[in-house]
Amino acid sequence: MLQTTLVQAQKWSETTNGTITTVTNKGGQTLGYSTTSGIKIISKDGFAFKDLNKNGKLDKYEDWRLPVDVRAKDLAVQMTVEQIAGLMLYSRHQPIPNPPKGVFAGTYNGKPFPESGASAGDLTDQQKDFLTKDNLRHVLVTSLQSPEVAVQWNNNVQALTESIGLGIPANNSSDPRHGTVANAEFNAGAGGAISMWPGSLGLAATFDPAVVKNFGHIAAMEYRALGIATALSPQVDMASEPRWNRVSGTFGENPKLAADMARA
Questions:
Q1: CA separation (Å) from 31 to 37, 48, 150, 210, 225?
Q2: Domain identity same for 237 and 116
Q3: How high is the pLDDT of residue 3?
Q4: Strand 20-25 and strand 12-17: pairing?
Q5: Residues 160, 226: one domain?
Q6: Same domain assignment for residues 107 and 175
């Protein structure tokens, strides 16, 4: 009897730029990984998948074709209590690079940044510790020396988290950073090389949700370009107490207007 073997045609390709490899699945997800993380590609049904836990097989949580809830459940049952606890933690504010003194100070190989010889996009000793030892993945970013440094630092963070455990990536987040006052509360000078807009009260004063929607779209693209995946905004509280020091972060005192602006 003549037997034939069907070989599934490869539907993916990859390109490498520096230490970052981009995998393009024809008709599927585009993936990225660091060449320094030890990640390997698994090919199945002609598509490419990342072997995040490095066990040589395609787990459900690694299969981007499956529904999110199926992937999440598969990942959850593989996690230790310590890893689950780490996802409930949030970092303190992280200026990039960390300053040598003050409440946001950090060290690079045991030395303050100016004395360390480290690059601005390198990870601090403290960042390495909370990512590896505490299993923390929610990182709050404040000031960034430049967009270029932001990208370098983000890639270093993701390369580290990709190389350990189940390969769960960091979720870098930011307080509002598009206001014209760059040193506003909790912003820590995060303005800089990014588009500058009126604050929430100023946007509310336009009475035009389309303006806010346009702002949100632009802010999202800029955040993504900086490696920021979560915006800790907008603030939708009602400005009902004039003594409150966060009135400027609201859309004002009108519930309907605030709801319309927040929805946009």
A1: 14, 8, 20, 33, 16
A2: yes
A3: 55
A4: antiparallel
A5: yes
A6: yes
Alpha-carbon gap, residue 178 to 201, rounded angstroms: 13
Burial class (CB in 10 A: 0-12, 13-18, 19+), 16: exposed
Is residue 227 a part of any domain in this protein?
A: yes
- The C-alpha atoms of residue 78 and residue 12 are separated, in whole angstroms, by 28
The domain boundary, picked from 74, 103, 126, lies at 74
Find all residues with CB under 8 Å of 12, minimum gap 6, and list them: 23, 24, 25, 26, 28, 43, 46, 47, 48
- At residue 256, the pLDDT reads 97
Cβ count within 10 A of residue 134: 13
Angle at 246 (CA atoms; ends 88, 93), nearest 5 degrees: 40
Closest residue by Cα to residue 127 from 162, 95, 152: 95
The one-letter code for the residue type at 90 is Y
Question: End-to-end distance of the chain based on CA atoms, in angstroms?
Answer: 66
pTM of the predicted structure, to 2 decimals: 0.90
* pLDDT at residue number 178: 87
Q: How far apart are CA 22 and CA 78, in angstroms?
A: 27
Cα–chain center distance at 82:
21
Low pLDDT (below 70) residues in the chain:
1-7, 182-192
d(CA 146, CA 190): 10
Residue labelled with tokens 């390709």: 13
